[in-house]
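haha ok so turns out i had the wrong file open the whole time. this is the CORRECT one, sorry everyone. sequence first:
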Amino acid sequence: MARRGRTVGTVLVIVGVLVGLVIAAVVIIHQIPDHPPLPGEQRCVATAAGRSVAVDTEQAQNASIIAGVSVRRGLAPRAASIALTTAYQESNLRNLDHGDRDSVGLFQQRPSMGWGPREKLMKPVYASNRFYDALIKIHGWESADITRIAQQIQISGYPDAYRDHESDGRVLASVLTGQSPAGLRCLIRDRRPGDPAGLVKALHRTYKITPKRSGSVITISAKSGGRAWSYAQFALASAREHGVTSVQVGGRRYVISNTELSSWRAADRPIGGHTVRITVR
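then structure:
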């Protein structure tokens, strides 16, 4: 019995040490600025062409706005790839109220360099539009090297740093512009009250569309399948902010889980292929 007691005690000590190491690792990771989301954290995962990118819910929402503005403007998906690659490097997809000298926002644009008033540059839709305004003035942006184009716009002191984020930017752009249907999955633990009116405003602000709303259900009739998927995945990326519980496009439906990254599944009642139905808590 004494030997068995010692064995059990040893096992408990080992388990305690392992748990302590795990907790310490989590604490250390959280002390690292802009750490990638951990497996159990609230997060979204974008998947396109066999590659996946994990972002937290704040990053997902900001990325969906950047991509959504490009869709509204009718730009090629490459525009969103360039913008997201740039924002990754400049702010890690966070709407920063500080930066080098007077730089602010997703793209770290400087009021003193003619980008616009500080308060407007802190608004993601405005900042994204200003970036695209500069982008489309560059000859050959549709096919030129992404890093070169990003540097030409930003004039950064680290001109090659954009290349580190190019692959992730491409994946997010493909998913959030609707080129990769059912490409976004999110785990949301928060159970905030639903805000359907806020989501309708966000969709209108980003895409300049007017969704129909009936209580907690929002319906959008898109002009194309690509736009439908962009609207749907924008709503999913905004799920934590607005209390979204499910999103459906045509015959595919996503139900948000608070325990796992669920999958897009066949809907019990399919709707039109260009129709988006969003249900809010």
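Confidence is low (pLDDT under 50) at residues 17-33.
again sry for the mixup
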